[in-house]
Amino acid sequence: MPTLVFLEHHGDELQKGSLGVLGKAASLGDADAVIAGSGVGGLAAQARGAAKVWVADDPALEAPLPQPRVDVLAKLVGEHAYDTVLFAASVLAADVAAGLAARLDAGLNWDLVDLQQRDGALVGTRPALGDSVYVEVGWRGEPRIALVRSGTFDPPADGAEPQVADAAVELEDFSTRSTMLEQAHEEQSGPSIEDADVVVAGGRGLGGPENFALVEELAKALGGAVAATRAVVDAGWYPYSAQVGQTGRTVSPKLYVACGISGAIQHKVGMQNANVIVAINKDANAPIFEFADLGVVGDLHQVVPKLTELVRARKGGG
Ligand SMILES: Cc1cc2nc3c(=O)[nH]c(=O)nc-3n(C[C@H](O)[C@H](O)[C@H](O)COP(=O)(O)OP(=O)(O)OC[C@H]3O[C@@H](n4cnc5c(N)ncnc54)[C@H](O)[C@@H]3O)c2cc1C
Q1: Residues 6 or more apart from 67 whose CB is under 8 A from it?
Q2: Does ligand 1 lie within 6 Å of residue 132's CB atom?
């Protein structure tokens, strides 16, 4: 039986993480998808790789609240016998997945970084013990519900356009009791750290929040996004949304530039899949040099502005 993938959208775009999960599901077998929101019919064409996309389009689904989405998914699973439901981890997806697991009395595995079919059984892989080991996990019954760690799978580059069908929106009374009073959008110029091809990250080596300007300038010159370590997020130097690592986001850009970052295991797990890792650190023995592709041993306050200048000169043709 096919898999159902929950596709989260922000504005007019389906989230890259959920499209990555859809691509993975389609590589394992038949995969359908569901989009739930208000005025979302036009998004279905973006769901390349899905056999069918269910569109639950209703004003009651305008706010990103979990319970109405649980209603939609529970009905689809019940009527079409999906044996697996997959989500790309996010705050909303985690709530919907947990609500669906409770509603269907189903097993939920979370933080998966891989999925395989083995002898007819679905096997998930998830990091454990502070990401120092990987363990394999399964499900005792159906449907099998899973949350995949953000940034794990890239969306497929191409794929046929899916068939699109309307999904019924019949909400339980208790699902409509919560309302969204206010929603704030973080101002962001440029790509998000999960979508960016280039990520420039700052750590405690910056010395203070004002020095994040160095990182921001380099990111701007490279057309990339800014990330941070937990140490600086905890110190209030940069917002949590930029944190990369075990308790932050997972990124897999083409280029990751780490400025003043020691390379703790909890940071490494969030960025180790970057194609090229460049580290700038004044301590030649910093652990980050053990897994960086290119390293500069030096004071970032001198190296980073020079690098920014060089990138600008290159781009300007100089
Ligand atoms: C359960 C748990 C979860 C965690 N989750 C995360 C997570 O999600 N993400 C995360 O990042 N961390 C996480 N951590 C914290 C992690 O263990 C490290 O403490 C943190 O990553 C260190 O951040 P840092 O590299 O900025 O700081 P530090 O470890 O203090 O490193 C600063 C580096 O800057 C260098 N430096 C100093 N001055 C300069 C200079 N002028 N020029 C160049 N280099 C300089 C130093 O040599 C040093 O290597 C977690 C920890 C725990 C226990």
Answers
A1: 99, 171, 172, 174, 175, 176, 178
A2: no
**Residue 208 CA to ligand 1 centre (angstroms):** 13
How far apart, in Å, do the first and last CA atoms of the chain sit? 58
What pLDDT tens digit does each residue of the chain (318 aa) get? 589 999 999 889 999 899 999 999 999 999 999 999 999 999 999 998 899 999 999 999 999 999 999 999 999 999 999 999 999 999 899 999 999 999 999 999 999 999 999 998 999 999 888 677 899 999 999 999 999 987 788 888 888 889 999 999 999 999 999 999 998 877 666 778 988 999 999 999 999 999 999 999 999 999 999 999 999 999 999 999 899 998 888 898 999 999 999 999 999 989 998 999 999 999 999 999 999 999 999 999 999 999 999 999 998 765
CA of 316 to the centre of ligand 1 (A): 34
All residues at 6 or more sequence positions from 87 whose CB lies less than 8 Å from its CB, including other chains: 5, 6, 18, 21, 93, 94, 96, 97, 145, 146, 147, 148
Q: What is the pTM of this model?
A: 0.73
Is any atom of ligand 1 closer than 6 Å to the C-beta of 261? yes
Find out whether the beta carbon of 231 lies less than 6 Å from any atom of ligand 1.
yes
> For atom 30 of ligand 1, which residue has the closest CA?
204
> 240 C-alpha to center of ligand 1: Å?
14
DSSP structure string for 154-179 = PPPS--PPPEEEE------GGGGS--
Answer whether 151 contacts ligand 1 (Cβ < 6 A).
Answer: no
Is any ligand 1 atom within 6 A of the Cβ of residue 308? Answer: no
Atom of ligand 1 at shortest range from CA of 261: 25
The ligand 1 atom nearest the CA atom of 263:
25
Please give the C-alpha separations between residue 87 and each of 37, 127, 179, 291, in angstroms, as whole numbers.
16, 17, 23, 30
Cβ contacts of residue 119 below 8 Å, gap of 6+? none
Ligand 1 mean position, distance from CA 3 (Å): 39
